[in-house]
């Protein structure tokens, strides 16, 4: 894929060098970027789950990344440890929840 893009850019550069007045390189790059992004997005999916545990810590399963936390007892103070663990900072937490997501191929 990278080689195809490089070859395409080289061909476009040659045409633009030959006729610089009609070559819209910015427009072409924008279209090319949108096309590549669209192709990638058609092949992937975002899968998210909620994980809950008693106490003040909860981990995301392997392969998932932590995207947010929620705490019991009206505690709004939390942090993320090691990119994988939600930690509710209030004392005597009854539960902690994590939103965990992964990008997968369709």
* End-to-end C-alpha gap: 18 Å
The total strand number stands at 6
Computed over alpha carbons, the radius of gyration is 23 Å
Helix content class: 25-40%
Low-pLDDT stretches: none
**Main sheet: strand order:** 1-6-3
Structural class: alpha+beta
What is the general shape? elongated
Topology as a string of helices (H) and strands (E) = HHEEEEEE
Mean pLDDT comes to: 84
Tell me which oligomeric state these chains represent: single chain
**Helix segment tally:** 2
Reported for the largest beta sheet, the result is: 3 strands, antiparallel
- The portion of residues forming beta strands comes to 35-45%
Write out key terms for the chains shown.
106 residues; alpha+beta; three-stranded antiparallel β-sheet; 2 helices; 32% helix; elongated
How is this fold's topology laid out?
Elements: H1 2-18, H2 25-41, E1 44-54, E2 57-59, E3 65-71, E4 78-81, E5 85-88, E6 95-105
Provide structural commentary:
- With 106 residues, the protein is of the alpha+beta class.
- It has 2 helices and 6 strands.
- The strands form 2 sheets. A 3-stranded antiparallel beta sheet has the order 1-6-3, with no helix packed on it. It has a 3-stranded antiparallel beta sheet with strand order 2-5-4, with no helix packed on it.
- Strand 4 and strand 5 form a beta hairpin.
- The model has no long low-confidence stretch (mean pLDDT 84).
């Amino acid at each position: 894929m990278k080689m195809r893009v490089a070859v395409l850019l080289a061909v476009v550069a040659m045409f633009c060098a030959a006729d610089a007045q009609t070559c819209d390189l910015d427009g072409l790059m924008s279209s090319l970027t949108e096309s590549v992004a669209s192709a990638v997005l058609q092949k992937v999916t975002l899968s998210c789950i909620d994980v809950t545990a008693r106490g003040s810590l909860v981990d995301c399963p392997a392969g998932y990344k932590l995207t947010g936390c929620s705490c019991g007892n009206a505690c709004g103070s939390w942090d993320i440890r090691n990119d994988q663990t939600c930690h509710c900072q209030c004392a005597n937490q009854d539960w902690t929840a994590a939103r965990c997501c992964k990008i997968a191929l369709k």
